[in-house]
Design a protein that fits this description.
Keywords: DNA damage, DNA repair, Hydrolase. This is Mismatch-specific DNA-glycosylase. It comes from Anaeromyxobacter oryzae. This protein is an alpha/beta fold. About 30% of the residues lie in helices and about 15% in strands. The chain contains five helices and five strands, in the order E-H-H-E-H-E-H-E-E-H.
Length: about 180
């Protein structure tokens, strides 16, 4: 059994990214979005969410930029389709408690799979800013950055949404002492 991937979190983050669950590869190497074909780190940088291009093994540096990352379900899998609804619901409860405790200024759900579980009454399919909150935090939904995501193929189709997330943060200075 693979170990869960540790959260990279702190109180009062500008954005807490919530992945669906770690990939088997990410769990093995101990870093978020570590699969070679996953452009998550390039998307963060290209959208202006990080001033430098981070490598997966630098994921802890997210905290320097007032960003954090966790998962909706801790169990690693090859695909999110392997997760049961019960696992996702249990993860949602734990995640809500985490968000309420940490109080990020925004939760960015990375992958539309989590939306019906985390926001069952949102009624707003697709990526973008949502009227609903999760654990008291405003929500922004991003497409899954995986290269396997056929609904949003290619880097540019995903980058649009990462840039829109960044635009919602303008004028929101970091609370971290530098």
């Amino acid at each position: 059994m693979l170990p869960p991937l540790p959260d990279i979190v702190a109180p009062d983050l500008r954005v807490l990214f919530v992945g669906i669950n770690p990939s088997v590869f990410s769990s093995k190497v101990g870093h978020h979005f570590a699969s070679r074909g996953n452009p998550f780190w390039r998307l963060l940088h290209a959208a202006g969410l990080t001033p430098v291009l981070l490598r997966p093994d630098e994921d802890r540096r997210l905290l320097e930029f007032d960003l954090g990352i966790t998962n909706g379900c801790e169990r690693p899998s090859r695909t999110a389709a392997e997760l049961s609804r019960a696992e996702l619901l249990e993860g949602a409860t734990l995640l809500r408690d985490k968000v309420e405790r940490l109080r990020p200024r925004r939760v960015a759900i990375v992958g539309l799979t989590l939306v019906p579980v985390l926001l069952p009454r949102a009624g707003e399919p697709g990526p973008g800013a949502k009227r609903a909150t999760f654990g008291g935090a405003p929500v922004f939904v991003l497409p899954n950055p995986s290269g396997l995501n056929q609904a949003y193929p290619g880097f540019q189709s995903k980058l649009v949404w990462f840039r829109r997330l960044r635009a919602t943060m303008d004028g929101a200075p970091s609370r971290r002492a530098r």
